[in-house]
Amino acid sequence: MIGKIVSALIGKKIASRTPGVDGGTGAVIGLVAETALRRMGPLGFAAAAAGGWAVSRHLKKKQAARTGQPA
């Protein structure tokens, strides 16, 4: 129960920094992410973290190319 509350609060905080996503949607995303990560287990969690890192790196390179700055 406490994990769901914490994940909803984290999702809401992330949503406040993401354009186009309001607090309620962020809370729901946080709850869904927490449930999905719990079901995936440690290996799934590691894969999700690696995938998030790869997407983040790709988006930073894409943004740097668009602005003409080195990545």
Keywords:
mainly alpha; flat
Summary, kept brief:
The protein is built from 2 helices and no strands. The protein is mainly α.
Q: How does this model look, in words?
A:
By secondary structure, the chain is mainly alpha-helical. Helix content is about 85%, strand content about 0%. The protein is built from two helices and no strands. The chain has helices spanning about 1-15, 25-65. Helix 1 (about 1-15) crosses helix 2 (about 25-65). It starts with a helix and ends with a helix. The mean pLDDT is about 80.
Report, as a whole number of angstroms, the end-to-end distance: 41 Å
The tally of strands reads 0
Q: Rg from C-alpha positions? A: 15 Å
**pLDDT below 50 for ≥5 consecutive residues: which ranges?**
none
What would you call the structural class?
mainly alpha
Helix % is over 70%
Average pLDDT, rounded to a whole number, is 82
Q: Report the biggest beta sheet as strand number plus sense, adding barrel if it closes.
A: none
How much beta, percentage-wise?
A: under 5%
Number of helices: 2
Shape: flat
What is the element string, with H for helices and E for strands? HH
